[in-house]
Amino acid sequence: MSRAFVKEPDGDAAFEELPERLISPNPNLVTDTGLAEIEAEVERLATAYAEAQTSGDRAALNVAARDLRYWTARRASAELVPAQGDTGEIRFGARVTLERPDGRRQIYRIVGEDEADPAKGTLSYVSPLAQALLGKSVGDTVRAGAAELEILEIA
């Protein structure tokens, strides 16, 4: 049968069965910043949920409810990892300066999955590059794709 003859839900009915956001099976390690971001998101979504209830906007209510369930679960499972004073080796929360073969330098901080944004200089601790970096020291090299990266600094 042609899709032209299948009635698709419209209006609020299109938002009734939103899929749940997937929760990572990895431990939910977070930095101080990451925990604050999770708490701010829970607060923002609780407000959005209340506003959607007041306005009767079922689509917004369903989206806010789904996202609130996700972030509430992430807050409940968050494991705060205190900042490390020792910068002898790369650990969770460390800021690492790397040098590429062409001389470019990049700085990444190893953070939790919800905080990670490589474009902003944060890597999830479960990412391949972060996994290669963990436990390494200044002067060590790690492979990232076809390139060898040298570790210049750990902060």
Keywords, separated by commas or semicolons:
two-stranded parallel sheet, Chitinase A, domain 3, 5-stranded mixed β-sheet
Structural topology:
Blueprint: E1 28-30, H1 32-55, H2 58-77, E2 78-80, E3 95-99, E4 105-111, E5 122-124, H3 128-133, E6 141-144, E7 147-154
Parallel strand pairs: 1-2, 4-5
Antiparallel strand pairs: 3-4, 3-7, 6-7
Helix pairs in contact: 1-2
| Low-confidence segments | none
Report the radius of gyration as a whole number of Å: 21 Å
The rounded distance between the terminal residues' Cα atoms is 61 Å
Q: From the 3D structure, determine the CATH topology of the largest domain.
A: Chitinase A, domain 3
- Number of discrete domains: 2
Question: What kind of sheet is the major sheet?
Answer: 5 strands, mixed
Largest sheet, order of strands side by side? 5-4-3-7-6
CATH superfamily of the largest domain: Transcription elongation factor, GreA/GreB, C-terminal domain
Total of helices: 3
Question: What is the class of the largest domain in the CATH system?
Answer: Alpha Beta
Q: State which percent range the strand residues make up.
A: 15-25%
Mean pLDDT: 91
User: What is the element string, with H for helices and E for strands?
Assistant: EHHEEEEHEE
The shape, in one word, is: elongated
- CATH architecture descriptor name of the largest domain: Roll
Number of strands: 7
> Which bin fits the share of residues in helices?
25-40%
Secondary-structure-based class equals alpha/beta
